Amino acid sequence: MASIKGPAPAPTSFPGADKLRIGIVHARWNEECITPLVNGSVESMVKAGVRPENIVIESVPGSWELPIGTSRMIAASQVQASSNVSDLMGATSLLDGGSGTSTPAPAAAAAASSSGGKASRAALDAVISIGVLIKGSTMHFEYISESCCQGLMKVGLDTNVPVILGVLTALTEDQALERSGVGRNGNKGHNHGLDWGNAAVEMALKANKWAEGSFSSA
């Protein structure tokens, strides 16, 4: 029997996506899953019309740091939008193609370098927070999972900037790999980063409309 789980198909058209600036903040734990998830998010956002140079990517040590990283990334972009300082983030993003603390993401870097456009300095319209938690033999998994997810929800509600939950909470390594699209033993699974990218674009556009007092159907 086929599973009924999963989102309905994403919209096929995202008018205005080319004007968006979207952030990704990702943990560095479990890099084998993180890299394809980041790449999948970038791939779907670019396909939706977001300009690669307007996708800002930062890393933090682990999923525990995702809420503060997301919050400060949003705040930094708002400062950047009203400042002439060239780099308020103080770290190298995946799209810069430089060294530093970010996880290499070849597809993301290639998309940015091929575009050649000038990056926006507007405040971020949405942020995807990406982490991968895999259950071990202690309660660490439960504490981090719940705190991280609640923290990310609070950031979105407090800032009014859509925060997309890109945190996998897997019971096994195989579950994590399959949900990153790189599963083993012939079962690659589905890259959930593709879904998160579409969700970020859709929510960014809708939130901008709502902020103007209008709705998609208006």
What does this protein look like?
The protein is α/β, with parallel strands linked by helices and 218 residues long. The chain is 41% helix and 13% strand. The chain has helices at 31-48, 66-81, 106-115, 140-159, 173-178, 192-211; strands at 22-27, 55-60, 126-134, 163-170. Strands 2-1-3-4 form a 4-stranded parallel beta sheet, with helices on both faces. Helix 1 (31-48) links the parallel strand 1 (22-27) and strand 2 (55-60). The longest helix is centred in the C-terminal third of the chain and has 20 residues, at 140-159.
The CATH topology is given as Rossmann fold
Number of strand elements: 4
Alpha carbon gap, first and last residue: 40 Å
The helicity comes to 40-55%
> Helix/strand-derived class?
alpha/beta
Provide the domain count. Answer: 1
Mean pLDDT: 88
Give the amount of beta strand, in percent: 5-15%
* Strand line-up in the sheet with most strands: 2-1-3-4
What is the succession of H and E elements? EHEHHEHEHH
User: What's the CATH class, please?
Assistant: Alpha Beta
Largest sheet: 4 strands, parallel
